[in-house]
Structure formats: C-alpha cells, structure tokens
Amino acid sequence: MSAAIEAHGLVKVFGSDVKALDGVSLSVEEGTVLGLLGPNGAGKTTTVRVLTTTLVPDAGQAFVNGFDVVRQPNKVRASIGLAGQYAAVDENLTGRENLRMVGQLFQLSRKDASRVADELLEHFGLTEAANRPSKTYSGGMRRRLDIAAALVVRPPVLFLDEPTTGLDPKSRIAVWAIVEDLVANGTTVLLTTQYLEEADRLADQIVVVDRGQVIAEGTAAELKSRLGETVLDLGFVDDDAATMAESIFVGTWGSAPVREGSLVELNIDAGPSQVMMALRQLDEAGIAPVTMVLREPSLDDVFLSITGRRTETDQEVGE
Amino acid sequence: MTASVLPGRAVALKRSRLRASIGDSIVVTERNLIGYVRIPEQLFFSSVQPIMFVLLFRYVFGGAISPPGMSYVDYLIPGILVQTVLFGSVSTSVGLAEDLQKGLVDRFRSLPMARSAVLAGRTSADSIRNVFVILLVIGVGYLVGFRVGTNFAGFLAAFALLLFFAYAVSWGFSCIGLSAPNSETAQLMAFPILFPLTFASSAFVPSETMPSWLRWFADHQPVGVVVNATRALLEGGPTARWVIPAVIWSFALLFLFAPLAVWRYRKTA
Question: Would you tell me which residues 91-110 of chain B have a C-beta closer than 8 angstroms to some C-beta of chain A?
C-alpha cells in the first residue's frame, strides 16, 4: 500500500493575517477513505482546494497520485475528480450537457463524452432528467450530478467537499452508497464533512482540523477510545439540579463532566462500579436523576473533548 | 440507481497545448451559448435596450441635433452600434462573476484544461452574440430610415471593426468580472466606465458642439475613435484617419487586457 494523497505542512494565509491553513499534514492510503472533520472555517475546504490545485499553498508540499500539486498541476487534475460543496454544475445546461462538457474538457471526443455521460446518468438514476436543465433538479439530484461530473474519467482519487451538506436523509444515504460502491472498487476518497455520523460510517481514517491545524487523527474507534468506553448521560429535573450534580462530579471524577442544560455527561472507563459510584455520590447529595442512559461515545463527544466546542450543524453557512 | 460497477477508464491527455486550448475554448463557448439560448428573457431584454435607444434618439432628441453632411438617423446608427456592443460586453463580466460565485470556475480549475479557455470561451460567445445584436440594430435602423451610404465592403469592414473592438473590450470586462465580489457588483462597476466613454464621444452628437477640452477627449478616446471609424465605413468621409487609430486602440486594449485577465484568473482564489 502506498499513499495516494500526501500533504506536509500546508500553509495558506488569506489577506494579511487569516491563517486558513497552519501546517496541515495528512496522508491517505490508496483505496481508503479519509474523513476530514471540523467545524465551518476550520480549513477543510482550503485543504481540498490546495490538493485539487485550485489554490496554491504559501508553504508546504502535497502530492496526489505521486504528482506535485504545485509543480505538476495538470497531471494531478487529470487523475482526480472533485465534487464541491456548492454542487458546481452549470444550471442552464441539462444533466447530459453538463457531463458531456466535462468529458470533452478531459479531451474525450464528443462521441465518447456523450456515451460516458449516458452511462453515468443511468448509473446515478438521472436518465429521465437527462434532458432537463439542471436548475430544475432537486438538491439530491444535483449532488448526484455533481458527483457524476467528478467521475467522468473514473479518476483513482476523488475529493468530496461536504457531499451531503444540506441534503435530506434519503439523499444522504444515496450519496453514502455511491461512495461505498466507489471505494469497494478501489477509488481513494478524501471527504470533508461536518457530520460525525458521516465520517463514522464512511471513513477508514479521520483527521480532525480546527483553526487550520490538525488537532487529532486516527480511526473512528481510536478517537472514541480516547474518551473511555462508555458515556453516562444523566438527566435532571432542571438546569439548577444539573449544575449541582456537575459541581459534585468536578474534582472527584477522572475526566471533567460536561453539562448541557439539564443533562450531565460522564465518561465511564472503569465499568459498572464507576456507575454505582456516581449514583452514590448523587444520593449522598440528595439529588436524583430523572433519566439515565449508558451509551458508546459519539464522534461529537470526541470533538467536544478536543476542542471544547460542539461541532456546528449549521447547514447553510459554507467556509 | 443501479448497483453495477462503473467501467474503468484511462486518462491520457494527448492533445498538444495549442490544440487543447482551442478545443477547450470551443467547448466553453458552446456552453455559454447554450446558456444564452436557455434564458431567452435575457436575450430579449438585452435587445430591447438598443431598440429603445434608436427610437429615443431618432424621434425624441434627433430633431434638435443636425449633424453636418448627413441625416441624423445615418449619423445615429453607427453610434448606437458601438454603444450596443460596448454595453453588451458588460455581460462578459457579469457572466464570469456568476461562474466564480457559483463554484463553476472551481470545477473548471480542477479539470486538466487550458487556463485561458474559460475566458476565451466567454469572450468568444459574447462575440457571437454581438453578430446577432449588430444585425438587429441595423435592421431596426433600416425601419426608421437608416441606409448604408458606402458599399458592401464598407459594411463588412464596419461589422468586423465592431466585433473586434467589442472582443478587445470584453477582455477588459473579464478583468472586472474576476475582481468583482459578485455579479450584481460586476454590473454596477461597469457603468462609471461606460457612461463617460459613450456619451463624451461623437456617438450621439457631433463633438464639434462640445467645449474644446471635451472635444479633444471625445476625438481621441477609444469609443469616440471607433464611432467615427464605423460612421466613416458606413456613411463615407475620411476613413483612414479614424479606422487606423480605431484598430490600434482595439489591439492595444486586447494586448493589455487579455494577459491581465488570464493573470487575474490564475490569481483569483
């Protein structure tokens, strides 16, 4: 196995002081999926733009399929597909025209480009809409067309910049199925997302970025194991009761409790006895929880514990 | 959606640089022309404006203006022609700003295509649209009494000059489109440039009636020179005196703005 995408110390400064990238390094093995995770403005899109040669970095090096993104941009471009956050298809063109145009710009003959367009339209369930201007498409159809446009030459490396942002759950699952199908057939994918569930489901490796820096990396399981094995969610009657419970746990507990409203989260890493201890502490203080749930930590918990912030779920705002 | 596996394809770019850049430009030109056809409203309303200018100046202002040596309608139409292709080139900047805004330029940038093709495809499509607009203005002009006073060769030469000048100018507007924060602003940015050049020229009134400093500007600035050259080719008069500087201006604008636009395109994030 070798790396299909490699980046070392990428730096990109916008204007005089906005450091969009502050030394990002990452590596994606051939045939695997890397999930680039982070809130809005973390540097996810900027990383993708550097790796897809649409932006030149101020410092650092990056290679895609062994080609230098700065020195051999056309070689890189010929071997990648990019599906962007804003579904960059021409809305005046029909689905078929959009795909044919991309094919022709990859130097396929008009005939070959048309044939490839038809294959892709069929594969993505867009045959019926093929001759309609893409502005009439639903969000999910547009996103599928955008991904199809990235697959015109079946590139070995695919970049998906927030492929499911703003999609309804059904369309989201359809996009996931497409990605899983591609990866099963050997495509390397770098995917940015704000959705932990998406990274959890699709990504072999996860890189968490915040403020232009890599703040954590590993498999989903590795990242979760940093939090211990289990999370105990305790719900209280009101915020005051939860605040009191929180103050009891602070100092007597290994990792700090997290309170959100009337809910307190505790990390459990020593098994049932620890749960019993927590309940005993509450009992001694005369506070009774109204709900109690034991669960696996989510990547959201991981993100919170690393950055001190929840991931943003705002779907409209781009980077 | 079918579960079948997509067939694999090899990627090999075989064309030479020059052939690739011409081929890519043609593909992008076609894409832009399809855009014009798909929004007929845009084409319709951009045609209404020059027609209204013809009628306004022919029937409202025209009676008060009497140019020496020819009827006002013969004087007016060459001016309207230059004004129309000039105002039309604003769509070059608006279209580019829109492509940037919508992320299409990012898609183009990620493709192994010639860097100049996005701009060349846009300016070429606008030239093709100009052919239609020029014929329309001349047609409307004929209905209100305009006649070509020279000959067919003069007509063709005027046609070619208008297209070439508009092509050069649209590269200038490419620079504006690539610098504008959005397409609405791109449109607004054009008018402070176009208005003085169009109206401080002999497009609608003879420059002889202007104060001497303004007259000097009107007779030397590119729009004024091209108006006079077009008028000379269509209606007679001193031809070389205006056509030569008009061609020189057009080449100068092209050689200045085309490289500048390509440079901006490469730099724009």
Answer: 102-104, 106-110
